[in-house]
Design brief:
alpha+beta, 5-stranded parallel beta sheet, 5-stranded antiparallel beta sheet, 13 helices, 21% strand
Length: 450
């Protein structure tokens, strides 16, 4: 490996950048990780609020996230201690006229068949439609000849309006952060294939019981430092310049210049385009423009005695009644020191973003009080709203997503927007970072052999 070892600059210490940097260091390369912000983790990291270690957004991982979980183990973490594992479920508060769908402990696919048999709030037609969807998708190998919207797919599979509202639309928004009318059916099927269509454990929902930074970013920082890698935070890369010796000069915000044999750009797509497109030439756009959607997390703190009957509930989004929340999480059941703290998630484009924070907090509290039939929820002790305005790109059908090997030789891309089966998820970011690192190392070996 020594003959093909290179000096690699990784720009961006989100989950994709951390994954790429770790894999490159494991391969024997000399790594320098540059991050513009003061913290690693990107759009999935810890924030300190009201004395709590919270997150800049409530996340759910899946048992199917094999690369994320495997990398955590490689870094010395124990996923079984980092997550509360719940069976796949879509459970609404009883007062909301929703549904109660809970996967059983039986082996796949019996765990879903039993859940369907026991499901409450669904008619016979709803259950038959769900069974038909699962059976047809399996028969098709979870693969479409031509991509379309999730909405079109649901119509084609003759899904009932109630099942669409209570099951498919919320799953689509949760997985792709894109409304069903705009979302890629193929990417949606990819997620379902690796969860609903796989083993029972793969369909499990994993709720973090520690802050997001401690799940992977901090462990990656510690590992890189143990490998003598350079980790520089609060160091934004302003420009990448090609040198005559086939190396790259990276000019940073503090006036420094760093040399690298290869570069992995692991920023969001907007900053990746800013850095890469000028190098691709005026006639080429190496990274296209994307439409983005926000994710808002509303934190409401109540007395420590407040506790939901479950760690999480689905909520019915009813804009006409100012009901914006889509899921509510009882943080006290995930973190013992956060008793009474609820996190309500609002994903995909919504008019809730037009409200002030005070207005939104009041309306969400009213939604909870009505949905959970508890007037005490009307009066939180404090509230805090965190919105990631560019949380994910809108995952449209046939979206043009660039390869990890960019159009500029010697520069690689890592990020949840790059080509792959998954949408903008933590697993998508990790897989992209690993893929970029493997391509770079393979190219280095091939070039050295020649």
């Amino acid at each position: 490996m020594a003959n093909s070892a290179l000096h690699i600059a990784v720009i961006g210490a989100g989950w994709a950048g951390c994954s790429a940097a770790v894999k490159l260091a494991q391969a024997g390369h000399t790594v320098r990780l540059l991050e513009a912000s003061a913290h690693a983790g990107g759009r999935a990291r810890r924030v300190d609020l009201q004395g709590y270690a919270l997150d800049n957004g409530q996340h759910i991982l899946l048992g199917a996230y094999r690369d994320s979980l495997a990398l955590m183990r490689e870094l010395g973490l124990k996923p079984e201690q980092l997550f509360k594992r719940l069976p796949l479920q879509m459970i609404y508060p009883p007062a909301t006229d929703g549904m109660h769908f809970l996967a059983s402990g039986w082996p796949a696919p019996l765990h879903l068949l039993m859940a369907l048999w026991r499901a409450r709030g669904l008619s016979r037609d709803d259950k038959l439609a769900l069974a038909r969807f699962s059976t047809t998708a399996r028969w098709m190998g979870w693969q479409l000849h031509q991509d379309c919207s999730v909405e079109e797919l649901l119509i084609r599979f003759e899904q009932t309006p109630r099942l669409t509202e209570l099951m498919w639309n919320p799953l689509c928004v949760a997985a792709l952060n894109t409304p069903a009318a705009l979302a890629s059916a193929q990417v949606f099927l990819n997620v379902l294939r690796d969860s609903l269509g796989a083993s029972r454990n793969a369909s499990d929902m994993l709720l973090p019981v520690s802050d997001l930074s401690s799940l992977l970013p901090q462990a990656a920082m510690n590992y890189l430092k143990s490998k003598a890698a350079e980790v520089q935070l609060s160091c934004a890369v302003r420009q990448i310049q090609a040198n005559a010796d086939a190396r790259w000069s990276l000019h940073t915000s503090d006036g420094s210049t760093y040399l690298a044999d290869r570069v992995v750009i692991a920023t969001d797509s907007k900053n990746a385009a800013r850095l890469l497109n000028p190098l691709a030439g005026s006639d080429s756009k190496a990274i296209p423009d994307y439409d983005y959607a926000a994710i808002t997390t509303v934190y409401l703190q109540y007395g420590s005695e407040m506790r939901l009957s479950r760690p999480m509930f689905a909520l019915r989004e009813l804009p006409e009644r100012a009901h914006w929340g889509q899921f509510v999480f009882d943080r006290g059941q995930l973190h013992a020191e956060q008793a009474g703290l609820l996190a309500i998630v609002i994903s995909a484009p919504t008019k809730a973003l037009e409200l002030t924070h005070e207005e939104l907090a009041i309306q969400v509290a009213h939604q909870l009080a009505e949905s959970l039939q508890d007037s005490a929820l009307l009066h939180p002790v404090w509230s805090k709203i965190i919105t990631e305005k560019r949380a994910t790109y809108l995952c449209r059908p046939n979206l043009n997503r660039p390869d990890n090997r960019s159009t500029v030789p010697g520069i690689y891309l890592a990020g949840d927007y790059t080509a792959g089966d998954y949408p903008a998820t933590l697993e998508g970011a990790v897989r992209s970072g690993i893929a970029a690192a493997r391509m770079l190392s393979a190219d280095a070996k091939t070039r050295n052999a020649n």
